[in-house]
Amino acid sequence: MKLLSQLKKILNIVPENEQEASFGIETPPRQEPTPNAKKGIEPPAMPPAPQKRNEICRFILKSLKPYIDEKESIGTGLKLYVLCKTTEELEITRVALFEELPSKFKNDILQKELADNYIRLSSDWTFEFVIVQDTLPACRFSEGNFGLDILKNQSALKDTAKAYLASIIVLDGQASQQTYVLNPDQKIEFRIGRGYRPRLNSGRTRINDIVFLEKDDTQYDETKGDKSLSVSRNHATIKFDKSARKYFLYVDEGGLPQSHNRTKILKENNTTLKLQVLGMPYELMFGDEIELGDGALIAFSAYEGEL
Q: What domains appear along the chain, each with residue ranges and CATH number?
C-alpha cells in the first residue's frame, strides 16, 4: 500500500473524491421528498367558512373603495345581503359571519379591515346581514351573490334633505300610460318591461311598473305598438338611492346583448351610453332618453320635492 501511495504521488494521480475536496466542491446531501410530494397530494385548501369570510370582506372593501380616506364618516352602518341557493351555502355563510355571535364579525374582522383601508363610519356604527334564498333585493352595491347598503340616519335625512321625484314619459312605443311618476316615498325600485305580470323563462312572475303592451293586450294598437314588442319582459330597472338622492338605471337580463336585445341612454350632449353589464348602475340625469330594444323610447326628468 505504501508503495502504491508513493507511486501515485510520483505520477501526480489524485483520486476523484480528493479532487472534489481540493477544489472546495461538496456533494449536496440527497433530499428526501416530502410526504405530500411522494404521494402527489396538493396542500390542503382553505376551509370553506374562512374562504367565504374573505370573499365577503373583499366585496365590502371593493364596494366602499370610493370612500377611502374621506374625512367625514360615510354612514351609520352597513347592511350586507348574501344570496344562498343551497343548504350548504347557507350553513357556510352562517359560520363565516358568526351568526351565533352577532358582533364578532364586525368587531374582530370588519372593523380592522375598514380601519386599515381608511374607511370611516360613525363611532357607533352597526353591521347587520340578511341571508336570502331567492334573489338579492335592490342594493346600492351588488356583485355575484353579495349586496351591500350603507345605512344613514334616516330621521336626520328626512329633516335636512330633499329627494328627487321623477317622471318617465313614453316618446315612442305603446305603454299602459303615457307618463309615469316615480315617487321614492312610496317605493325605490321601478321595473321596466313588456307585460304587466309576465312569466319569465326561470318560471318566476315579474311585476313591471313601467309597462309596454303585449300584442294580446286589449289596449294594444298595431299602428303605434310595433316598437313595444322589442322590449323584453324583464328589460331594465330604475332604482332610487336615498343616501345619494339620485336615480340609477340597471339593465336586466332581457335587455342585454346576450339576449339579442339592447338598452341605451341618450344624453343631452349627444353622447350615447350602451348598457351591457348586468348589475352596473348608470346615473340618470334630467333630460336623458332611454332606448329599449328596436326603438321604444322613454324620457327621464326629475325635480326636487319633499321625500
A: 48-151 (no CATH), 161-305 (2.60.200.20)
| pLDDT for the residue numbered 307 | 41
Query: Percent helix, strand and coil across the chain, each rounded to 5?
Result: 25, 25, 45
What does the alpha-carbon distance between residue 254 and residue 237 come to, in Å, rounded to a whole number? 11
pLDDT of residue 175 exceeding 70:
yes
| Phi-psi group of 195: left, alpha or beta (phi > 0 → left; psi -120 to 50 → alpha; rest → beta) | left
Work out the angle at residue 66's Cα, subtended by the Cα atoms of residues 61 and 69, and round it to the nearest 5 degrees.
Answer: 85
Angle separating helix axes 87-96 and 48-63, nearest 10 degrees: 70
User: What's the pLDDT tens digit per position in 102-134?
Assistant: 689 999 999 999 999 999 888 889 998 888 877
String of DSSP letters for 83-102: E--SHHHHHHHHHHTTTTST
CA distance 45 to 38: 19
- CA–CA separation, 254 and 252 (whole Å): 6
The reported pTM is: 0.50
